[in-house]
Every structure is written in structure tokens, then in C-alpha cells.
Amino acid sequence: MKLKRFLSLPVLSVFLLLGFIYYVTIFIFIEDLSGLRSSAGLVNSLIFSLLAFLCVFSFIACVLTDPGEVPSGYTPDVEENQSPDQEIKKNGTPARTCDKCSAHKPPRAHHCRVCGRCVLRMDHHCTWINNCVGLRNYKSFLLLVFYATLASTYSAIVIVSCTLQKDWGSFGNLRAKNIHVGCGLLSISLCLTLGSLFIWHVYLTSRNMTTIEGNRAGWLARRSVLSYNHRYDVGAYKNFTLVLGPDTLKWLWPTANSHIKDGLGFPTSS
Ligand SMILES: [Zn+2]
Ligand SMILES: [Zn+2]
């Protein structure tokens, strides 16, 4: 049952954190900055509520969407068997089957030890969503990081503005000062962490790489053993459309996934 994925401490912690940041940003800091009944307060609250809704929606989509499993009885066709697009293990041995599942593994699929199965176009297993990030939920994951970066940046700007405009000389409440500094540090740290993660995933998407492939490219580059030839890179714009879809109007909607194919083969540059 997919709903069971919500019953995990990291997933529940994300909901608690989101709820906490939503509450303090709107009911403490926007209220303090301009008052919730003023037009500025209302606009700020609406924008932040929209970002918070998009975060929660993307998060739920990430948790509930199956990243994609290898169909039972999958066998690679002859051409694919002979092509070099099968992954190469670090010792140089071609890995055509999964040792754990004792089954054929499509290109870019990997075995996840936590999920106990092979996942199509596997990116990584994410504890925070209690699910693998793979073929079918990578778009919602990318948008989750995008909306969470926007929301935490918005929250940080509101909190810092509120803190700076206060006359702390006459407002000597130590507890209030601690709340302002604590919430400010929390939102700024989230903003920097999520922002860095977002930049990394935008880079990976622009090269049509998964986190596993990006790390492998870095690993090979550091050792100067082999240059990593990523044959799935078909040009930055096309790479983005492969993840976000061909229709730019649907790029920002986490569940608009009708463009995703079976994940058993991928366009290549050669
Ligand atoms: Zn496997
Ligand atoms: Zn997994």
C-alpha cells in the first residue's frame, strides 16, 4: 500500500517542518511585518501559501508515484545487448543482469537495496520521501526541490526584513529576539541547502544525467582513469524536455508525466 510510505519518521518530519515554517512565516512574521489584513500582508500570504501548496503537492507526488520497475520477463534486444550503453562497473565488467534480482537490467536501471528491487532510470533512494527517485517521479522531485527553494527563500526574505525593521532598542524582549534569530537561521540554511541541491539537479538535467551517472562521471574525472562518455546527452533543451515534457506550459506541474516512455531504452546522441 503506497500510503504506508507516509508512515516514516523522515516523511513525517518533512510535514512537521513545512507546517512549522508555514505557520511562523505567515502568522508571526508577515503578521508582524505588515499585518495580515493589509493588502501587502494579504498578497505576501497568498504567494507564500501558493508556494507551500506546490511544495506539499510535489512532495506527495514524489512519495506516492512509483519510480518504475523492470517488467517481469524483460530481455534486452540483441542490438542493445551488443551496444556499449549497458552500464560498466568500476572494475570495467559489463553488468547486464542484476545479481540480487537475477534478472536482466535495462540501461540506466539500478538495484536499490532499500526498495529491494531494480528501479528504472534510478537517480537515488531518498529517505525524506521514503521512496526511490527514478523514471516516473524524477520530475516531481526536481519540482519539489525548486518550489522548496523558492518557498524557503521567500520565508528567509520575510523573516530578515521583519527582523531588520524592528526597533530592538525599545523592544527588549529576549525571547522574541531568539525566535527571530532562530527562525532566520533555519530559513537561510534551508534556502542555501535546497538551492545548492536545485543547482546540482538542474546541471544533471541539462546533461540528461542521473545522480548516479553524475557521481560516476565525477569519480572517473578525479581518477583520470577514463573519460566518461555520456551518450544520453542529446542537447540541453531536449534533455530538459525529456524530464519536464515537450509542452512548456506543463513544465511546472509535478504530475504532468504523459511524455514518459517505458524506461527500457533512451534516445542517444550517437
Ligand atoms: Zn535488482
Ligand atoms: Zn529505493
UniProtKB/TrEMBL annotation:
Sequence ranges assigned to domain Palmitoyltransferase DHHC in this UniProt record: 95-213
Alphabetical keyword list: Acyltransferase, Membrane, Transferase, Transmembrane, Transmembrane helix
Reactions it catalyzes: L-cysteinyl-[protein] + hexadecanoyl-CoA = S-hexadecanoyl-L-cysteinyl-[protein] + CoA
Gene Ontology molecular-function annotations: protein-cysteine S-palmitoyltransferase activity
Primary subcellular site in the record, as a coarse category: membrane
EC number(s) on file: 2.3.1.225
Transmembrane regions: 7-30, 42-64, 141-159, 179-200
Enzyme type, top EC level: transferase
Subcellular location: Endomembrane system
GO cellular component: endomembrane system
InterPro entries from the UniProt entry: Palmitoyltrfase_DHHC (IPR001594), PFA4/ZDH16/20/ERF2-like (IPR039859)
Coiled coil feature spans: none
Entry superkingdom: Eukaryota
Lipid bilayer topology: Multi-pass membrane protein
Cited PANTHER family: PALMITOYLTRANSFERASE ZDHHC16
Similarity remark: Belongs to the DHHC palmitoyltransferase family.
Free-text note regarding domains: The DHHC domain is required for palmitoyltransferase activity.
The protein's name in its UniProt record: S-acyltransferase
Species, as recorded: Handroanthus impetiginosus
